[in-house]
Please model this.
Amino acid sequence: MCGIIGYVGHEECAPIILEGLRRLEYRGYDSAGIAVHDGQALRVRRAAGKLSVLGDLLAREPLRGTVGIGHTRWATHGKPVEHNAHPHVSGGIAVVHNGIIENHVELKRRLQAEGRVFSSDTDTEIVAHLVDLATQRGLSLFEAVRATLAELRGAYAIAVLAGNDASKIVLAKNASPLVVGKGDGVMIAASDVPALLQHTRDVIFLEDGELAEITRDGARIERLDGTPVNRPPQRVHWSMMQAERGGYKHFMLKEIHEQPRALEDTLRGRVLLEESDLEASELGVTPEAARTLKRVVFLACGTSYHAALHGRYLVESVARVPAVAELASEFRYRDPVVGEGDLVVAVSQSGETADTLAAAKEAKERGAQILAVVNVQGSAIARMAHGALYTHAGPEIGVASTKCFTAQLAALTMLALYLGRRRGALTAERAGALLTELVAVPHKMRDALADAKHVEDIARAIMHARDALFLGRGLSSAVALEGALKLKEISYVHAEGYAGGEMKHGPLALVDRNMPVVCLLPDDSTLEKMLSNVQEVRARDGNVIAVVNTEEVAQNLATHTIKVPRTAEEFTPLVTIVPLQLLSYYVADHRGTDVDQPRNLAKTVTVE
Ligand code: G6P
Model:
């Protein structure tokens, strides 16, 4: 996730673009850059680090001009260093890009064979080269971009500026957001509305497969096939604060709703449907190592630990490798037996959690292979690991992790499938069926999100509870733990997650009619056993909230039923966690707590 912006107007644009990027910083903040046409040529300034570093650079080395593009980056391909910061320039073409070009490796190889020299590790730079080549063939900038798009696979919102034309910017969009604002003698485009609001409230949201050319006087929009688009601007009434949260009341709610996109971005370019396999060059785990490794050890804290439990389960069941998941904060202090032959997977949203970092270092010193599953490029855990499988969830601002959790589930699922294929535990046929289902999961998440209003009603009904229980078996037991953690961390309602079978060994004593018991009852191999556990709760008058695939399952058992789409058992948590996140959110919101910054907690914990 990154933020892009383009401005064509009459004012000095560098400060305007910088201010726009500030409004987009929530989308990424590891490096930034800007290109301005000064009337003669393109001038570029780029800097690693927060936007303020670029601001300082521009103060020392200002840019003058009234047409420009800018970018704030959340690294996906290539570290967050200056040479990977956008804009990327080739010949007379500068490009900023948000998204992931899936076929960048083959395109880069082809361009290099044609003698093109690359100066970054990004997927974006190929776009600059392709547009430059097309303009050299005599195409206009608009047509050159169109020709380039025909070669790209993946997600993109791009803005392109040419050194030989200071009158326009060309934009294109597929699967990444892009909105065009129309002011008085000024056109400004950006990834999101907050970047435009100071200039205009009249906006056109571009659709997938559209490209646009903006000049001071207006926009010309076409579909890729040349069909003209005449979409009148619409007026947005959001306040700046509302706009930054995409119209949602809290970042957490926004991030819950971003999950299908985060999942798609995490799977993009890695799921190889035609080969029934996974692209795994980032892992640092060669096919040979995958075949011979003896054990997988997952290390993590908090929500990431719950994702680790999911990873452990799948690595055992799908890849048939012994696996354990350990709380990183405990691991180091018991002189663990770990070393050669172990693949240690450190799971962390921030990549900076002190306990996880220290535990992974300890394992590395003892000879284990370390794989980081992290969301932040270049973070400490990513740097110390032998390989990194990044989740592409984009920055997460709410302290309670949501979209990073589901992106972690997806990454660990891919790891399990990769190991399963290499070790022969998973046939190509079964892998193909699973991968086909995996790419359908974001749509199922969207369906689950569409039921938010119903979940809010349930939240209202249980919001005064003092305690709550969450039950699940098999893969759903980790979902139960995560559901309980979400509720307690943001609403301060005491909540416990339990494996359903453990109820009778203690927690059942707590159940009475005041106790909401959230039961995960997807149609999977544990359903019958779970139903027996729910009967035990009902017999004690427990207030059952059932999460099901089939409504009949919970008949006569549940006070409230939440139906979510069915998926393969291996992916069920990706869908069933959605209503649990929403439930916690709405309970907290109705109780009036500080949802995005709950008391006593921090987003990143860098102390042990
Ligand atoms: C903090 C956050 C949690 C997070 C945990 C682990 O406690 O509040 O949301 O799950 O740290 O963080 P990590 O960045 O390692 O995933």
User: Anything to note?
Assistant: The chain has three domains: 3-244, 253-448, 451-591. The longest strand covers residues 165-174. The mean pLDDT is 94.
